[in-house]
Amino acid sequence: MSPRKRAQQAQAQQPQQSESPAKSPGSSGVRAGELTSTGITSTGFSGLSRTYFGQTSNKLAETAEAKVLENLRNEAKIKDAAIAALTAKIDRLEDEKRSAQYTSKVERRHHPISTMSNLINDKGRQKVKVGTRGSLLTQNILEALTEAKKSDAQNIADKFLKVFQNPVNYITYLQSDTFAAELIQVCNAVSELLDKEPRCLFMQSPVYVFGDIHGNLEDLHFFADNIWKLGMDLTAGQFLFLGDYVDRGMSCLECVAYLFGLKVLYPHKIKLLRGNHETRDVNGWEEHYADKSFLFQCKDRFGADRGEQVWEECNQTFDRLPLAAIIDHEIFCIHGGIPRPIREQSHQPTEVQAIMALPSVVSIMPPYEYESEWMKQVATDCIWSDPASEEMESRLDATGFGNSPRGGGAVCFGSTAIDNFLEANNLSYIIRAHEAHAHGVSISKGARVFTVFSTSKDHRQGERAMAGCILVDCDQIQVINRSHKYKNKYVHRRTSVAVENLTSDQLEERRRLGLVRFSLAMDEMDRRRGRDSDNDDNEDESNDSGEGDAAESSSSSNKNHKPKF
């Protein structure tokens, strides 16, 4: 480059150096030349700036990170608090659930005052006016109160309870047309009560649960003497009977009259379910049950026409009996067993709902015209099915059901069916009847199925057979059995000593009422015929020996006697 051009460039660059001075951080008005005079060059200034801004940036980054960490810690504290609140809520709900197992939901009820007290003495109980030491106002209020007037059916029911206590004193009445007419009247009253009940009852413990009765007045009297000794109205809890009140025993009419009488007097205390013997095809099967058939006993007691009328009126009431009950939303009670699921009924997803959907009046065997196939299946399974034996489990279908050894279309249910049923309906146990055994109460299927049988007679279970019931208390299931050694205060079955003083007509009357065993009556009649024959031959010594042989034969016959069915 020429000298001239270099001089021009130098002049062009000189004004730029005289422009506004550069400012350094922290120092205003310091010129670049001054920085140079202090020993800080432009290169040094640039490095210093980078160092300063780098430190500031690091501090800002650290501050941001600290804020992020603080926010995270705060979020963690909030979530920890939420978790603690949820944990406390879960604990509270679990406590409420555990508490609900021991306490029931209490609802407000109206409790009118009774002006009569129950006086208990050796002869039983009697009603007397309640005493008071209160003011004149209290006395006036009590005097103004009146006891509810009993209906005709309730007055008849009171009579039935007296007859039950000692039927021997009412032999004439029990064979009269008056008894037939009054039993029909009570049947009508019970039917009206049953029309208001659902097909599946929901009950709250404590509840006493009873199995088959089968016309056995003696064992029924045992429960009355020991379970509701002061009367059902003075005994806490409720009473659930699982069906089979008639057939096999000789006191079917008396048992029905007594239980129906209790239902009329205490409809909220006693609940009656239906068994397979509460159907016409079964309790009218005279060819099979002979004199132990309910129909036979009705006709034998009141004559053919009147007897059939009483039988039909009783069956009209049986048609209205509920089929199941659930205690504490945990225990399913039924006569036979669980029904098969009804898959084609979309509006009935569970077996319990299928039972609830049944009509209030069903005949079952034989069915009424309006009873559809699914209705007949559900109702029949409820009163006829049994738990499958261990040997049969492998022969059941995928749902856990199979054909029952009983035949006739009855089914049995196994462990799979029980698992599915209890899970689908949120239940824990099944209490049922229907099967005779000598233990009173038996437990099976992994301690989930209870079978209760409340008669110790007429089922070929031996002389040591027991009659049982179950108490479902607030927090426990307890078994109560009658020992074979127990002796009733009132002996319904007459001994050979007692029948010796009866005339032949009296003996026949008591036999027809079930107060004397058929075999004992026949032995006594044979003994008398043998004695009369010996007297006619005037063979005194032979007569004495004959009586001894007859007595020994009678004792042996009683010992080895077995019911026909």
Overall structural class, as computed from helix and strand content, comes to alpha/beta
Helix coverage percent: 40-55%
- What's the mean pLDDT score? 82
C-alpha geometry? globular
Distance between the first and last residues' Cα: 143 Å
Strand content: 5-15%
Number of strands: 16
Number of helices: 20
Please compute the radius of gyration using only Cα atoms: 44 Å
Query: Segments where pLDDT lies below 50 for 5+ residues?
Result: 15-40, 491-497, 541-565
The description of the largest β-sheet is: 6 strands, mixed
Strand order in space, largest sheet: 3-7-8-12-14-13
How would you characterize the overall build of this protein?
The protein has 565 residues and is an alpha/beta fold. The protein contains 20 helices and 16 strands. The protein has helices spanning 3-17, 32-37, 42-100, 136-144, 152-165, 171-174, 177-194, 217-226, 252-265, 280-283, 286-289, 294-302, 304-318, 351-356, 373-384, 415-424, 496-499, 504-512, 518-536, 540-560; strands at 116-121, 124-129, 200-203, 207-210, 238-241, 270-272, 324-327, 331-334, 386-387, 401-403, 411-413, 429-432, 441-444, 449-452, 467-472, 477-482. The protein has a 6-stranded mixed β-sheet with strand order 3-7-8-12-14-13. A 5-stranded mixed β-sheet has the order 6-5-4-15-16, covered by helices on one side. Strands 9-11-10 form a 3-stranded mixed β-sheet. Helix 7 (177-194) crosses helix 9 (252-265) and helix 7 runs parallel beside helix 13 (304-318). It is globular, with a radius of gyration of 44 Å. The N and C termini lie far apart (143 Å). The model is unreliable at 15-40, 491-497 and 541-565 (pLDDT under 50).
